[in-house]
Design a protein that fits this description.
It is a single chain. By secondary structure, this protein is mainly beta. Helix content is 7%, strand content 40%. It has helices at residues 9-30, 303-307; strands spanning 44-51, 55-62, 80-81, 86-89, 95-99, 102-106, 109-110, 119-120, 124-128, 137-138, 150-154, 157-161, 179-183, 188-191, 207-212, 217-222, 228-233, 238-239, 243-244, 261-264, 267-272, 277-282, 288-294, 313-318, 321-327, 333-342, 352-354, 356-366, 371-378. This is FKB95-like N-terminal Kelch domain-containing protein.
C-alpha cells in the first residue's frame, strides 16, 4: 500500500467531533419537531457589553436569512469572534432600544470628572449601525431626567416610562411627567397623560412595558402585581381601566423587566428558565399555552447553565420563529438559539393548553477577553 498514510490521531479526533456536532444538529431538526422552513427576514442583534475596566463595547450581529441559507442547515457549531463597532465609557444606567438600524441610549447618570454626586441626565444619543463609520451623536433631550427608564418602540416611536425617581429634582418627579414619547420624524418629545395612581410604584418606578402594535396599545404592569395590567391607548391618548390577566396558577411577571418577553400579533410570549418552558398568552381570548423548549440540551449546553442566568433575552424574528439570547455569569461568550413556537398543536387542560417549541439552530459569539454581556436588543 505505497503512497497511502493513515490520518493522525488529532485528525481522527477532529473528525469525530464534527460528526457528533452534525448528529446533534440532525437530532434538533428531526427528533424534536417536524421540518420548518422560516420566512425570509432581515434582523440584527445589538449587544452592549461591559469590560473589567468599566468601559462599554457595542456589537452588531447579522442573524438574517435573506440569502439562500436555511436556518436548519447552517453550520452554527463554531464560536464566532465579534469585533465592536463602537466603544464608550460606562453607561449601564441608560436604556437601550433600537429602531431599524439606529441604536438609542436614553438617560442615565452624568458622571462629571472627580465628582461623586452623580446626577441623572435627560440626554439621548443615537448611532446609525448601518454607517461605514458609525459615531454617537446627541439628539433632542428628553423633558425629564431619567435613569434606567422602561422603553418600548411602537410604530417607530419611542415610549419612555419611569426612571424619574426621588433622586431627580422635584420638577422631574411629578406623576404627570412619568411617561413621554419621542417621534424620530418630527424630533419632538411630548408627555403622555397622567397614568392611574395604582400604576405608579414607589422608589425606582419599575414596570414591565410591552407594545401591542396590532391593538395600537401599550401594556404596562406594576412590578408588584402579577395579575393586573394597564393599557395606554395610543390612538386615543388615554389610559384605559385595568385589565385582569387571568393566568391561573402561573405568574405572568417573573421579573421586573421585559427582557424575556416578546410580542407577536396579540400574543405575549415569554421563556421561563425555571421550568425550561415557553409560554404564550393570547390577549383577547385569555388563553395561556405552555410547552417545554426542546433542543437546547442537544445544542451542547447544560440546562443548568441556562437556569442560573440572571438575564435571558427573547426576541421575535418572523412568523413562528423566535430567538433566545443569554450568557453565562462572568463569561465572554453569548449564546443564541433560534427556535420555533407552534400554538396550533395544543390541547386544552383546564385553563392551560400546551404548545410545541423546538430549537432550529444555535450559535456562540465571543465578545473578547474580560468582556461580558450587559444587555441586548433586536434591530
Amino acid at each position: 500500500m505505497l503512497g497511502l498514510s493513515l490520518p493522525s490521531r488529532g485528525a481522527r479526533r477532529r473528525r469525530r467531533r464534527r460528526l457528533r456536532r452534525l448528529l446533534r444538529q440532525r437530532q434538533i431538526s428531526t427528533l424534536w419537531a417536524p421540518t420548518y422552513q422560516p420566512e425570509r427576514y432581515e434582523k440584527c442583534l445589538c449587544f452592549r457589553a461591559s469590560t473589567h475596566k468599566r468601559n462599554t463595547k457595542w456589537f452588531v450581529v447579522n442573524i438574517s436569512n435573506r440569502d439562500d441559507d436555511n436556518d436548519n442547515d447552517n453550520d452554527w457549531t463554531k464560536k464566532l469572534r465579534l469585533s465592536p463597532i463602537s466603544r464608550t465609557k460606562c453607561d449601564s444606567d441608560s436604556s437601550l432600544v433600537c429602531v431599524d438600524s439606529t441604536i438609542y441610549r436614553l438617560g442615565g447618570f452624568y458622571r462629571a470628572p472627580k465628582c461623586y454626586n452623580n446626577r441623572p441626565t435627560k440626554d439621548v444619543l443615537c448611532l446609525d449601525a448601518s454607517s461605514p463609520s458609525p459615531r454617537w451623536k446627541s439628539i433632542v433631550s428628553m423633558n425629564v431626567r431619567r435613569t434606567c427608564p422602561t422603553t418600548v418602540v411602537v410604530n417607530g416611536k419611542l415610549y419612555v416610562m419611569g426612571g424619574n425617581s426621588i433622586r431627580n429634582p422635584a420638577e422631574d418627579t411629578e406623576t404627570d411627567r412619568w411617561a413621554e414619547v419621542f417621534d424620530p420624524h418630527t424630533k419632538k418629545w411630548s408627555f403622555l397623560p397622567k397614568p392611574p395612581d395604582d400604576l405608579l410604584p414607589s422608589g425606582e418606578n419599575l414596570v414591565m412595558c410591552l407594545g401591542l402594535e396590532d391593538l395600537h396599545k401599550i401594556m404596562v404592569t406594576p412590578y408588584n402585581s402579577s395579575k393586573q395590567a394597564y393599557l395606554y391607548d395610543i390612538s386615543q391618548n388615554i389610559w384605559t381601566s385595568k385589565h385582569h390577566v387571568d393566568l391561573c396558577d402561573h405568574r405572568f411577571v417573573s421579573r421586573v423587566d421585559n427582557k424575556d418577553t416578546a410580542v407577536f400579533g396579540n400574543t405575549l410570549y415569554w421563556y421561563d428558565k425555571n421550568y425550561r418552558s415557553v409560554n404564550a398568552y393570547e390577549w383577547e381570548t385569555g388563553n395561556l399555552l405552555s410547552g417545554k423548549l426542546k433542543g437546547l440540551g442537544t445544542a451542547g449546553w447544560k440546562m443548568e447553565d441556562i437556569r442560573v442566568q440572571k438575564d435571558i433575552y427573547l426576541f421575535h424574528l418572523s412568523g413562528k420563529l423566535f430567538c433566545l439570547v443569554w450568557n453565562e455569569e462572568l463569561s465572554s461568550t453569548v449564546h443564541c438559539s433560534k427556535f420555533v413556537v407552534d400554538t396550533s398543536c395544543y390541547s386544552h387542560d383546564n385553563c392551560n393548553g400546551s404548545l410545541c417549541a423546538w430549537v432550529l439552530s444555535s450559535q456562540d459569539y465571543y465578545l473578547g477577553h474580560n468582556t461580558t454581556l450587559y444587555d441586548a436588543a433586536l434591530m
